[in-house]
Write a structure and sequence with these properties.
The structure is a homodimer. Chain A has about 220 residues and is α/β, with parallel strands linked by helices. The first copy, chain A, folds into 2 domains: about 120 residues, Rossmann fold; about 80 residues, Alpha-Beta Plaits. Chain A is about 35% helix and about 30% strand. In chain A, the strands form 2 sheets. In chain A, strands 3-2-1-4-5-6 form a 6-stranded parallel sheet, sandwiched between helices. Chain A is elongated. The termini of chain A are far apart. The relative contact order of chain A is 0.10. The model of chain A has no long low-confidence stretch (mean pLDDT about 95). At the A-B interface, helix 1, helix 6, strand 7, strand 8 and strand 9 of A face helix 1, helix 6, strand 7, strand 8 and strand 9 of B. The structure holds adenosine-5'-triphosphate (2 copies).
């Protein structure tokens, strides 16, 4: 069980605050907006009206005692900057911050944010990939351009064999998991026949995965 | 190559528009904000100043000819609603829309959005999971409460054997991929010794994965 302070209770901050509370942690939420604070009063440990650009606010709340701080203010970069600095100055070890743009990202990192997240940017990139490769349902980056990708088999691939598809694309990708209906096989043989709606999980280098996807 | 119309060029819309253009598609971007439109003029196929609550704007741009429409307006729900309806009325087959809240999500779905995305909500849920389970780096939901999860081995698990950890937790989870340094093995033996920083990919039911994570 940890203690979290969430500064900024827009959709992003509120979601983090309520989810962490639901999972059993102590969560303090701070926002200038009374409506948002009231709405959360019953759903998180403590919801407080306060302006973080006022240093006394965070002092009175003893934020230095918290394990983790999350700065969930996007547009008001000055408030996000001040909140990040104040949390770090008071000794909060882990401070995650939301950033709207790449520039804000670099600023917050330099001011001590342990990690910076760009929800609109990251989801935008995700959506673009899904629109470009409609068969891609989800993916995980493993670093060094290597990805795990989940594809949903479309109509036109119904009845195809996996290894035939890999061979035709001449792509270095591997099948690691296959879910057909409710049955998941974690070591599927590559000559398996695919059916519409099946979930195919592959791993490979980005170029090879693209090569594979372009030949579908 | 497809034709996309992106309505709303905030961070989310702009990211989608620029990424799709970079991947070779035709992209029309529309926004009321001249500054945003100018900034994108050189980076997407067409960037146009326009207010989508004015029906003539979309008519003049022949949006009916586009394959896909993305409504990337979050706060102005009325504009998002009108944009969604107008795209569908003009025959755009695939319309994806951003929604800030669950209520907006249901409204946009009912008005014909093919798919609704909540970037702040989805990333908020993601961040909460990562804060609750610090070893979890990423995950993919396969449906029916089944997940693929990527963990990063922490200090205290350095030198542990995978099967010993699974046994100790008495959890029904399977090791599907292991990345140690730059080497990825897609069919790792479960008695493998883990080292700090290794990337471990497991699959299992949510309860079993939690059971495993709680025993780490
Ligand atoms: N100085 C401040 N002190 C405390 N809270 C603040 C301060 N400035 C802004 N906030 C709060 O931070 C929250 C998030 O601000 P932001 O401008 O990013 O809104 P948003 O884009 O609607 O958020 P989200 O994208 O998470 O829905 C708002 O609820 C706002 O009231
Ligand atoms: N009627 C409209 N016609 C065209 N564009 C609009 C209209 N209303 C809002 N927009 C544009 O939609 C974009 C996104 O609006 P929103 O209010 O969601 O801002 P945002 O939260 O800053 O976006 P993001 O979270 O993507 O950064 C803005 O650039 C805004 O100018």
């Amino acid at each position: 069980k940890q203690q979290f302070v969430i500064i900024g209770l827009g959709v992003f901050g509120e979601t983090i605050a309520t989810e962490l509370t639901r999972m059993g942690h102590d969560v303090l939420g701070i926002d200038t907006d009374e409506v948002k604070v009231d709405r959360l009063a019953e759903r998180i440990t403590h919801a407080v009206i306060g302006d973080v650009t006022d240093e006394s606010v965070l002092d009175e709340l003893n934020v230095g005692d918290y394990d983790v701080g999350v700065v969930a203010i996007g547009r008001n970069i000055e408030a996000a900057i001040l909140a990040t600095m104040q949390l770090r100055d008071r000794g909060v070890k882990k401070v995650w911050a939301k950033a709207l743009t790449n520039q804000h990202h670099r600023i917050l990192k330099r001011l001590g944010a342990t990690r910076v997240i760009g929800p609109e940017f990251e989801m935008g990139a995700h959506v673009a990939q899904e629109l470009h490769y409609p068969m891609v349902n989800n993916y995980i980056g493993l670093g060094e351009e290597e990805f795990i990708v989940e594809l949903i088999v479309s109509d036109n691939l119904d009845g195809c064999q996996m290894d035939a598809l890999i061979e035709k694309a001449d792509a270095e990708v591997e099948l690691v998991l296959l879910k057909q209906g409710k049955t998941t096989s974690t070591n599927p043989s590559s000559d398996v026949t695919l059916h519409k709606g099946n979930q195919v999980v592959l791993v490979g280098q980005l170029d090879e995965l693209r090569k594979f996807a372009d030949h579908l």
